[in-house]
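User
New here, explain this?
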Amino acid sequence: MTAREMFEAIGFVPFFKTKDLIIYENFPDNEKERINVVFYLKIKQIRVYYVETDEDVFINMPLLKAINKQCEEFGWLDKLTIMDELIEKEKMGKPSHITYSKKENKFIGVCRKCHQIVNQKMNYCCSCGKHLDWIEENENISHIEESKRGG
């Protein structure tokens, strides 16, 4: 049975598809129970929420099986893929567009993997989990703090 067939068996239909995401949606009688299952293809993440309230959904086993089957069909669950992703996340990466924020007294930048704003206090990107390399910036912040003290 394919993921699509599994979703359809529990009342979900493919609702929207682009190169970046796929959305399955159900259409129950009670509009408040309408659910979206969104697969973010580039970042390999899934979100399940109630359409009307944007609240998270508790996932039952049939839905979890359909989600897992879809992930399997995408190749997201291959052991080598998972291990490669873990290794890639652990490789330190220097953020791009690094600038010093006087207001916050720290360096800020952009994660090269997911393009989220990160700051020097973060060892890992909160969005994608990428290990961040702030070594030079940590050295520079010491020099900035010494010059403020007149040292």
Notes: The first strand starts at residue 12 and ends at 17.
